[in-house]
Amino acid sequence: MTTIDIQYVKGVGEKRAKLLEKLGIFTVEDAVRYYPRAYLDFANCKPIAALVPGETACVRAVVGTELFGAQIRKGLTIWRSVLTDGAGTMHLIIFNNRFLAERLKQGETYLFYGKVTENYGTLEMNNPLVEEDCENAGFLPVYPLTAGISRLQLSRIIQNALKLWLQEEHAELLPEAVRHDYSLCRERYALTRIHAPVSLEEVQIARRRLIFEELFVLQCGMALLRVQGRQRSAFCVDTAFAAEFLEQLPFTLTGAQNRAVADCLRDLSGAWVMNRLIQGDVGSGKTVVAAALLYTMAKNGLQSALMAPTEILARQHYETLQKILGGSVRVVLLTGGLTAREKRVAKAALKSGEAAVAVGTHALLTGDVEFSALSLVVTDEQHRFGVRQRSTLSEKGRAPHVLVMSATPIPRTLSLMIYGDLDISVIDELPGGRKKILTYAVDSSYHPRVYAFLRKHLDTGLQGYVVCPAVEESESELLSAVEYAKELSAKEFSAYRVGLLHGKMKPKEKAAIMEAFAAGEIRLLVSTTVIEVGIDVPNAAVMVIENAERFGLSQLHQLRGRVGRGSAQSYCILISDAQGESAKARLEMMTKTNDGFAVAEFDLKQRGPGDFFGSRQHGLPELKIADLLEDMDTLQQAKHAALDVLAGDRRLEHPEHRALRQAVKQLFSQNGETSLN
Ligand code: ADP
Ligand code: MG
After folding, report:
1. Which of 321, 379, 429, 565 should be mutated for ligand 1, with most atoms under 8 A from CB?
2. CB burial class (10 A; 0-12, 13-18, 19+) of residue 638?
3. Ligand 1 in reach of 565 Cβ (< 6 A)
4. Is 283 in a helix, a strand, or coil?
5. CB 575 within 8 A of CB 447
6. pTM
7. Which residues of the chain have pLDDT under 50?
8. Which of 245, 246, 248, 251 to mutate to test the pocket of ligand 1 (most atoms within 8 A of CB)?
9. Which of 27, 322, 576, 639 could make an SS bond with 549 (beta carbons 3.0 to 4.6 A apart)?
10. pLDDT in tens, 48-97
């Protein structure tokens, strides 16, 4: 019943069903689980005079002037008016919504709901939600919408779907004991009230239940993945080889690196398959830890794969490994940028077992890449890969060991919970002799001085980076980097070889540029954020970041980590003309600390986890209502509850956990595939 196609719900039909699909609503169940992102609380309208820029508010106001529309360019029409509530006025701006603009009549009162912004000292609301001013407008849910469906229409559709849903019996997904222990309302109550509450209190009760439920399902899934990962190891590994590898390195490992290596070796020689995350700030030396394991496996006659998120990084790992693994271990590179012939050679070497180590990108995941004895899978910068991709690679071997390396510093409490399926080693120490990267934030009037500073360093033989930000349209990002590089090499840096690196270049071109930079031929590299991940050129000592306010803090930290890798004092100069308080505070934070965990924590607080964990970078299933950070306490509770339940039913096989098991499978499935079995 609940898997009923949304198309058959009253008020939908074929055409609207297509629109609903865009919102991820395919069935009645999906509609019922399409939660409001906010509520219009018309009892709490704010006077315009009391509004603060940045807040989202409801205002009851009169449309003061006739709406004036102007076509700015093709595809962009803007209507303007002034709203007034007697004591205050603000501007109303409507983009490309003729329907709304024509609905609003001068002199009439409406309810406006939206984000308040400030533009040259005047408050404005852009594309607010608008309701006729009916006196008994109460507490209305606001849903994320898509073009073609209004708030009211979507509300009605969801109400109709809910009616259908309520006609059915549904097994409670939360075990009774859990519901009781954590004082959670029933699912029926939660779903009814989340869509049609009469008070804030009801919203809270319903939300608490649904958030708990979602995190509980997540934690159950993590725990199951862990059980699944707990396979008996099929390999007998002699770990003594690691010592011989470490001895021939030109440096000694830090204490933290040694601990990580020891953790891994213990895993590799144990009875169970390794499932480990190594978390270490940029520059903490994760690669060499992985290399110790690759070497050990190779000496045992076993194969390993190292997967990196970008072509550049894969190439760099390939070169590093070729150097440090020595002549006795054959390493092959497998990326999309190779010629068909090169790929064929690499694949053959893996299939026959001649090559002990495969380094590559997603290309390693394709079906025709076969190994003769894949026993260890390492993924670098794992937040870019999903849980699913990790397991695809693992399936190419017989229960291979899994090591994940991440440079995204996530507060430890959180990582323990979201990487519930992995054991964790933290490398919280930088190799000795590193100097702190000195970071400065300046405005663009400093450009001449910054260039002079850069030239001074280039003249001593060091190298530098200039990073241009991702601006809204990808085209202009490209343009800005290309033009900037041209300008710099024609003027301020005409005496030096300036290179350019951006995401639209062919892999071969990128690799050539990186090689020339690593070899010191290119002295100054102008780049977009493609250098963000993992690039290691110790001779680069100065990084200039243009329009620094456009980057997230964690991203700035990652970028900054490209310098400070050698013995010279390194510098990071953040250039920004942003006036906003929060932008200034962020850049100031960068100047104060080099500690990735501190930066991450500040970033999380300031931006909120939505952005931080945005775009599914962490590879976790997408959550509908819970928020990993805001709901951290609930996450903790849900984890305990999940462990309790699983203690009695390790694989969720008891009949009373059927609904739960189903929900877990669904949450962890992508494109119809599930990584749980
Ligand atoms: P990340 O953790 O960011 O991936 P890398 O593995 O790229 O860091 O290491 C950064 C640099 O530090 C590399 O040039 C590497 O050779 C060097 N390095 C790693 N460990 C040590 C160490 N214990 N002592 C000195 N240099 C080291
Ligand atoms: Mg790295």
Report:
1. 565
2. buried
3. yes
4. coil
5. yes
6. 0.67
7. 1, 471-473, 475, 478, 612, 614-618, 671-673
8. 251
9. 576
10. 999 999 888 889 899 999 998 888 887 788 999 999 998 899 999 998 88
